Amino acid sequence: MRPVRFLTYLAPSIPRAFFEETVAAVALRLGIEATLESETEVSGPSADSDPFASGRADFAFVCAPSYPVLTRSAGATLVGAAPVPADPRAEGRPVYFADVVVRTRHPARHFADLAGSRWTYNDPASLSGWYSMLRRLGEIGHAGPPGTFFADVRVSGSHRASVRLVASGAADASAIDSNALVIQLQQEKDLAPALRILETWGPLPIQPLIAARALGPVLPQEVASVLLDLHRDPDASNRLRAFGFTRFAPVDPDFYKGLASGAASD
Questions:
Q1: Residue 259 — very low, low, confident or very high, per pLDDT cuts 50/70/90?
Q2: C-beta separation of 177 from 96 below 8 A
Q3: 76-85 burial code (b ≥16 CB/10 A, e <16)
Q4: Nearest in space to 159 (alpha carbons), one of 140, 133, 139
Q5: Average pLDDT estimate for 50-74
């Protein structure tokens, strides 16, 4: 039997080591061989780059907007377990937030104050980095594209790169995955004094693990069962907490239902 192929679109913003340890735990407990590949160009696939249709992967960790896209193409099904951040704002739920960061001394006090500024975002498949910003523009009454509100809109390639651009002054603001931000500020302690959080948006449904529909229901259910029990193992629980998560919690398609009609309206 060939190895079960996992693919993550979420590293390096969420460290690859988190996915390595998660996949290793699944493989050990199910007695299977598994591999992990990273796609670092975008935080989730489109229908045109479906990793299941192409045979590239059996399971994929993706940003939430990709889940309904791949479901509509009949290629994907949801694995019913998603990580729960230690962030107290999550209140024990599998959710996260978009933290809008600016330089500490930036004059803006509200998102609307960023008109004419330089915005950076990780990639156009990102719920926290892109779609949340589009929604916020609508909330403040801006009906045009982002480029008619900001003076410049720049793709950085990752949340980590966006944070560095803002901290260095090369960009004015960015919406960052709250879990990715916590991890980065812990690892790069020189960044924290240069930044402040302007606004927080959310909660947002956390990035799901999805599976190729062609696998059938049994293996995805087994993977979900392993993930839901990980926190009961003290060693596994400690490793989860090292990456800012407490456990995996059950999720179902309804949890992501708001994304089906467009991520920006979720």
A1: low
A2: yes
A3: bbbbbbbbbb
A4: 133
A5: 91
Q: Cα 201 from chain centroid? A: 14
Integer CA distances (angstroms), 62 to 9, 20, 126, 152, 211, in order: 5, 15, 9, 27, 11
Percentages (nearest 5) of helix, strand, coil residues in the chain: 40, 25, 35
Q: How many CB atoms lie within 10 A of CB 235?
A: 9
Alpha-helical regions (H) of 31-158 = 66-72, 132-139
What number of other Cβ atoms are within 10 A of residue 60's Cβ?
A: 29
Tokens 């969420």 belong to 14
Tell me whether the omega of the peptide bond preceding residue 124 falls within 30 degrees of 0, making it cis.
Answer: no
- Residue 261: CB partners within 8 Å, gap ≥ 6? none
